[in-house]
Design a protein that fits this description.
The chain is elongated, with a radius of gyration of 23 Å. With 313 residues, it is an alpha+beta fold. The protein has a four-stranded mixed β-sheet. Strands 3-5-4 form a three-stranded antiparallel β-sheet. It has a three-stranded mixed β-sheet with strand order 6-7-8. The protein starts with a helix and ends in a 10-residue tail after the last helix. The protein has three domains: 143 residues, no CATH class; 45 residues, no CATH class; 99 residues. It contains 13 helices and 14 strands.
């Protein structure tokens, strides 16, 4: 995906989708803006600035009734701290990662003073760890993953890195090399734990959670997004994860499986085919307890020959 395409994707994503404006314009001024510059240019008086607008960061304004999007907060952060680089979860959103809300903290890698609403990290950044997307200075995908793995708890870090890799693949080896480059930087122990668990095949945080649940329970690491075909080579289903050699799979069923009659009918018909093909696919819902999910998966794997030399045919 080109940087232009990423930029367009970021504008739509950060704005909350195609149906929501990516920016607010008032009094002929694009939002957000530097208040002192707009007053100096004669577009607004100081009284108008105070009455019609509100600051989102020091000196950075938007209309009082403007619903501020993630993109606007990121742009505002860049304006508030010239020369700073967007990092962390916000950087992953700039690179197209999903599941990032408008209210996530905006992280900056910069040698600047802290201010309300921003997480400022005074850390070393090499030139090749910074890129430009939609005129915004942001950490590269590899450096973004490096920071996510160091600063977040393991499960959150893996989920965020999964989403980043799914949208903008990065090299695990490149992230590991960053750890060697920045010896002594905080959080490297966390990184060494989280990085090997990344799988860009996960298409939701719940899929990441389910995969980690299995791994933590001592089950084999499943393969993500596995495609199953029937005897004639026809597509049947792409399942969230599976243990192919044992023909055991697992899927996290979201709300669409319950609210859509069309999806329900499709699921029933596909499951009939999977049973005929001797696939045991475990369906997980949010009400399920983790230990019950693990027990079901373990039983299915044991019944198919896991732990023996040769899987059941």
């Amino acid at each position: 995906m080109s940087l232009d395409a990423l930029s367009n994707h970021f504008v739509v994503l950060a704005a909350g989708g195609p149906g929501r404006a990516a920016s607010c314009v008032q009094d002929g001024v694009q939002m957000p803006f530097v208040g002192s510059e707009v007053v100096a240019a004669g577009h607004l008086t100081r009284a108008q600035l105070r009455s019609r607008y509100r600051p989102i960061y020091h000196g950075i304004y938007v209309p009082r009734r403007c619903e501020v999007s993630l993109r606007q907060r990121i742009v505002g952060a860049s304006l508030a701290t010239p020369g700073a680089v967007i990092g962390g979860v916000a950087a992953s959103a700039v690179h197209g990662a999903k599941w990032v809300g408008d209210d996530v903290p905006i992280e900056l890698v910069a040698a600047s003073r802290r201010q309300r609403g921003l997480v400022v990290r005074n850390e070393t950044l090499a030139d090749d760890e910074v890129t430009m997307v939609a005129d915004i200075r942001v950490t590269t995908p590899a450096r973004t993953a490096f920071d996510l793995a160091r600063h977040l708890p393991r499960d959150s870090a893996v989920a965020r890195m999964d989403a980043l890799m799914n949208s903008r693949p990065f090299s695990i080896e490149e992230v590991s090399l960053l750890a060697k480059r920045h010896r002594g930087m905080r959080g490297l122990r966390r990184l060494r734990v989280a990085l090997p668990l990344v799988d860009g095949g996960a298409e939701s945080p719940k899929e990441t959670w389910l995969r980690l649940l299995f791994i933590d329970a001592g089950l084999p690491r499943p393969t993500a997004q596995f495609v199953i075909y029937d005897e004639r080579g026809r597509f049947v289903r792409r399942i969230d994860m599976c243990w192919e050699q044992f023909r055991v799979g697992a899927e996290y069923d979201g709300e669409q499986h319950l609210t859509s009659r069309c999806q329900y009918v499709k699921d029933v018909r596909v499951n009939r085919v999977l049973q005929r093909l001797d696939w045991n696919v475990i369906h997980v819902i949010k009400e399920d307890r983790g230990e019950d999910i693990v027990d079901q998966a373990r039983s299915a794997l044991l019944s198919r020959g896991w732990g023996t030399t040769t899987p059941r045919n």
